[in-house]
Each structure stands twice: as structure tokens, then as C-alpha cells.
Amino acid sequence: MSQPSSATGLTVEIQDTIAILRLDRPAKRNALNDALVLALRDAFERMPATVKAAVVHGAGDHFCAGLDLSELSERDAVQGLHHSRMWHKALDALQFGPVPVIAALHGAVVGGGLELASAAHIRVADATTFYALPEGTRGIFVGGGASVRVPRLVGVARMTDMMLTGRVYDAEQGERAGFAQYLVPAGESLAKAIALAQKVAGNAPMTNYALTQVLPRIADQTADHGLLTESLVAAIAQSAPEAKARVAAFLQGKAAKVQKG
């Protein structure tokens, strides 16, 4: 099942239990405009119940080169506030949506593109990937969630450096810093992301829900509140029939053992 690319610049394809969302503005290096941001929001808010994991990637040579500055309109402070909050809602629909999301990165992951990638739960970069936040050198500030999500990946000091100096991280530097969890050869990030999504889709639904919805919120809580939340979610997860069946299969030697590598 595939929805063809439209004026929104987003193509959605369903492969069994995996949704593959492609940013489809290669001539613009997949730069984000309002139509594309809203299309991403709508895609996750309307995700079919049969989908258990999603992959986001970009057409052409780049994942996403950021905000489409050619469509940047003059806004007063109030309009700018509401525009930023629209982005927040759209990327929250991805991060806190119905399924885990894997971002397949290549080429530019810049500005708003890094904001989009940081909203995913897993990031796979290929050797062509590079990361930047050029807003600082353009006299503006991030507005799509980078100030919250990027420091959680790489720390406040690295983000500050990137915005103050225009520093660019290449693929290897980015993986070491924490922008991506996986680094693969050029051209292989999408295949790796789909393979990971298929694996994730096979998890117990409550486990995936806990990891995408609860774990990020535990990280925002005080230690004692976080530990209580953990206990409550652990109790709920282990009481699910599917969890009981999986544990029983492991105890009976029917489940695969953890293997190195």
C-alpha cells in the first residue's frame, strides 16, 4: 500500500506492519515547509492500527537540509510563537505517536532536519551523513524542538558549540557524539532502518509503548518519582498476556538466547 507523493512532499508506504515515510522534495534537499511538517503530523496521528513501527527517510542525496527559507514569511512575535508551537505539536506526534520510529539518515541532517531526526527513537546514519545547526550563524534560534531534544542526545555544550561556531559533525564524529546509534556504509541506512523496524515491530506492544511513551518522561522526573513510575509500568507490562507467553517460552527453552554481536 502506497500513497503517492503530493503537494505535501511526503510519501507514505505500508509494508506489512511497517510504515515507510519518505520526505519527497529532493530538489529542495527535502527542506521542511509547513505543508510537509503538517503532513508528518497527520501521518502519525492517522497511522493504521496494523502498523507496529515506522521508518522516516529522505529522497535524493539528503535526509533533510532544514527549514525551507525560500518559504519563510515575515512574522511578528505572536505569529512566530504559534508557528514554533505548530512544529512542536507535529514532532510530538512523531515522538509520542502510536509506534516506534527509526530515522534513516544520509547527507544533510541540518537545522530542522536534525530537529526531525532527534524526535525519532532510533537513528541510523550512513557514511555520507553530516549534522549542523546553522541557525546561530544566521541570527536566529531553533524553534522546532532542538533546544530540548538535541541536548538529550549530545549534551548542552555540544549544541552550544554548534550554534555559536557553525560546527559541522561528520558521520563518524556524529555517531561518537550520540547523534546516531548506528553507522553503516553509504547507501545502506534505509535497509538497516527497515530491518530494525521489523525487529521492533515484533516486540510486545506494551513494551514498545513503555519505551516510547514512558521512558522519556521518567527521564524528566525526579529519581524517586521515576522509580515509582518504573515499578508501575513494569507491573502493567508483565501482567499482559503476551508478556506471560513470552516469558513462558523462554523458560521452556523455546525462545532465542541473547547472542553477542
Describe this structure in words.
The protein is α/β, with parallel strands linked by helices. The chain has two domains: 2-201, 2-enoyl-CoA Hydratase, Chain A, domain 1 (Alpha-Beta Complex), CATH 3.90.226.10; 205-251, Lyase 2-enoyl-coa Hydratase, Chain  A, domain 2 (Orthogonal Bundle). The protein has ten helices and ten strands. The chain has helices at residues 34-45, 77-95, 112-119, 146-154, 156-165, 171-177, 189-201, 205-220, 223-239, 241-251, and strands spanning 2-3, 10-15, 18-23, 53-58, 101-105, 108-110, 122-126, 130-132, 169-170, 182-184. It has a seven-stranded mixed sheet, sandwiched between helices. Strands 6-8-9 form a three-stranded mixed sheet. Helix 2 links the parallel strand 4 and strand 5 (101-105). Helix 8 (205-220) runs antiparallel to helix 9 (223-239). The two termini are 34 Å apart.
Quick overview of this protein structure:
A hairpin with a 2-residue loop joins β2 (10-15) and β3 (18-23).
Question: Secondary-structure map with pairings?
Answer:
Layout: E1 2-3, E2 10-15, E3 18-23, H1 34-45, E4 53-58, H2 77-95, E5 101-105, E6 108-110, H3 112-119, E7 122-126, E8 130-132, H4 146-154, H5 156-165, E9 169-170, H6 171-177, E10 182-184, H7 189-201, H8 205-220, H9 223-239, H10 241-251
Parallel strand pairs: 3-4, 4-5, 5-7, 6-8, 7-10
Antiparallel strand pairs: 1-2, 2-3, 8-9
Helix pairs in contact: 1-2, 3-4, 4-5, 8-9
